[in-house]
Amino acid sequence: MNYKFAKRNDYVKASEIREILKVTENPEIISFAGGLPASELFPIEELKKVCFEVLDKDGEASLQYSTTEGYLPLRKSICKRMATLGINSTEDNILITTGSQQALDLSGKVFIDEGDTIICESPTYLAAINAFKAYMPKFKEVSMDSDGMIMEDLESVLRGNPNAKFIYTIPDFQNPTGRTMSLDRRKKLIELANKYDVVIIEDNPYGEVRFSGEKIPPVKHFDTEGRVIYISTFSKIFAPGLRIGWICADTSFLEHYVPFKQNVDLHTNIFSQIMTYKYMEMYDIEEHIDKIKEVYKHRRELMIQCIKNYFPKNIEYTLPDGGLFIWVELPSNVDSTEVFTKSIANNVAFVPGNPFFPNGGFKNTFRLNYSNMPDDRIIEGIKRLGKVLYEFC
Ligand SMILES: Cc1ncc(COP(=O)(O)O)c(C=O)c1O
Question: Cα separation of 13 and 209, whole Å?
Answer without folding.
Answer: 32
